[in-house]
Design brief:
The chain starts with 18 loop residues before the first helix and ends with a helix. It is 39% helix and 14% strand. β5 (215-219), α7 (224-232) and β6 form a beta-alpha-beta unit. α8 packs parallel to α9 (280-293). The protein has helices at 19-32, 45-52, 56-69, 140-156, 169-182, 198-209, 224-232, 249-258, 280-293, 348-361, 367-379, 381-407, 433-442, 472-487, and strands spanning 72-75, 79-82, 126-127, 192-195, 215-219, 236-240, 242-243, 246-247, 261-266, 296-301, 325-330, 342-345, 412-413, 422-427, 445-446, 448-449, 462-466.
């Protein structure tokens, strides 16, 4: 197929991002900017490789990544095309501007929501939690050495006093480097605020963004503490449905026409709790709606690293979103939830407002922990730890899927999750989910019914089954106990 144009891709040797990922990211940018319309024919891999003066395998890897993420499709004997399912990113007129980011008048409220029961219950109970990591996998010798350095060096130079409420600069620099190289963002340390886990990051975003009676949208199955964070700031919570492709953007647009939406909270990479990955066309439509109706997207990428099917998908924050995406990430699941290290990424103005909120809560974070984690990131230890644990968690995922198929196949069905540390288990019709939860506890196994994640606490015949914190023996024992509960 003849083409009278060439892709304007500029490769940077100083980027730090792998060349094939640079190609993929720039193709995505061209799609979102409208330069590559849906159904546009892409240049062949040989042609593009010659134009960019790179190995053809590099272009093949980039195309495979874009196809896996849903941006491109292949047609037999015809070539590769931009997916025709993607909406056209034309210039939409902006709705009347309602409020500016961070200009809200704050009313201090106390968040008083119910937390999940602790997973450290009786040793006899096997806990299929919501997807927490296994702290037994932590390289404690390396971690303890980093904490020793974080304590000794600053104390000798009298640097363990009050610091920047945005967090230790060394950690913010390390996170910025990681995000730019591995997730396609383009940020610096001044666009990052360290928080005590992603939940604090969500709360800070809620404080800066919302004022009483603002409208905030969450999916009808979502992370309960996130909903409560916005509600504690006086927001009116609206819900929107989702399916196997992510958020229902048609229903979302209807809400946008009816209400002045201030923000939407989403988990597009591994939707919480269903684990589905938002498709490229839904992501693009979400960004279009954010521009058209002038609302902010809070993107919670709580377990980005644990993706099994292909390279993790680039976040919404990696796109040209014109300041409409606040990105929330966490290192707690990489290391341990108890270490409480999360972060927000946004404009410098937004981050400065977050720092002002931090001053009201706790003055600053834990500088010793932040210095230790910064050392682990700079030395590459965290990267090596992620590679090791990714293999372990993938093995556990496969073990659990085999157990579910062989032992519970008559009662449940599921889709293999592309990533995350949990499986969304759908129960067959006729099974009483509430009775099952009770029977399971009698068998000394704890499960989380879908109603826990529903805004209206509806009885939904599904379970979020976390596997990350359980080894092969524990998984097998837990499924046998759960099978007895089903049979009962």
């Amino acid at each position: 197929m003849l083409r009278s144009w060439k892709l304007n891709i500029v490769l940077k040797s100083t980027s730090g991002l792998a060349v094939y990922l640079q190609i993929a990211q720039q193709v995505i940018d061209d799609i979102q900017n409208g330069r590559l319309a849906p159904a546009t024919a892409m240049p062949g891999t040989r042609e593009l490789a010659a134009h960019l003066e790179v190995n053809r395998k590099t272009v093949v890897l980039a195309y495979e990544e874009l196809i896996a993420q849903g941006w491109l499709i292949t047609q037999n004997r015809r070539g590769t095309f931009v997916s025709s399912k993607l909406p056209s990113f034309s210039i939409y007129p902006l709705a009347n501007k309602l409020t500016s980011v961070g200009s809200s008048i704050k009313i201090p409220l106390v968040a008083d929501y119910q937390t999940h029961p602790a997973s450290t219950q009786s040793q006899a109970i096997i806990d299929f939690n919501d997807g927490i990591p296994d702290t037994r996998l932590i390289p404690f010798d390396i971690l303890s050495r980093a904490f020793r350095h974080a304590l000794l060096a600053p104390s000798k130079s009298n640097r363990l006093g009050y610091g920047d409420p945005k967090g230790v600069l060394a950690l913010r620099n390390a996170i910025a480097t990681m995000l730019n190289i591995e997730r396609g963002l383009n940020v610096d340390a001044d666009q990052i605020c360290i928080a005590r886990g992603s939940q604090m990051g969500i709360f800070l975003a809620a404080r800066v963004l919302t004022k009483p009676n603002d409208y905030v949208i969450v999916e009808n199955l979502s992370y309960p503490p996130a909903r409560e964070a916005f509600r504690s700031c006086g927001a009116n919570i609206l819900t929107v449905g989702l399916d196997d492709h992510g958020i229902d953007v048609i229903a979302l647009e209807k809400l946008c026409r009816k209400y002045p939406i201030r923000a939407i909270y989403v988990t597009p990479h591994h939707q919480f709790p269903t684990t589905v990955m938002m498709t490229a066309e839904r992501r693009l439509k979400l960004l279009i709606l954010a521009k058209q109706y002038d609302f902010t997207i809070i993107e919670d990428d709580y377990d980005h690293e644990f993706h099994f099917s292909h390279h993790p998908v680039f976040p919404l924050a990696s796109t040209s979103h014109h300041g409409r995406v606040v990105y929330v990430g966490s290192l707690s699941k990489v290391l341990a939830p108890g270490l409480r290290v999360g972060y927000l990424v946004a404009s410098k103005e937004f981050i400065n407002q977050c720092a002002s909120e931090v001053m009201l809560i706790d003055r600053q974070g834990n500088s010793v922990t932040e210095l230790a984690v910064a050392e682990l990131m700079e030395s590459g230890e965290i990267k090596r730890h992620i590679r090791r644990t990714l293999k372990v968690y993938n093995e556990r995922r496969n073990i659990l899927m085999d157990l579910l198929q062989n032992e519970l196949g008559d009662f449940v069905n599921f889709d293999p999750p592309n990533g995350g540390l949990a499986i969304w288990l759908r129960l067959n019709d006729g099974i009483d989910i509430n009775k099952l939860v009770q029977k399971a506890l009698l068998e000394k196994v704890r499960i989380l019914p879908a109603s826990l994640f529903s805004e209206s606490l509806l009885d939904i015949n599904a379970i979020r089954l976390g596997f990350g914190s359980l080894n092969a023996t524990e998984l097998a024992a837990g499924i046998q106990r759960l099978k007895r509960a089903f049979n009962a």
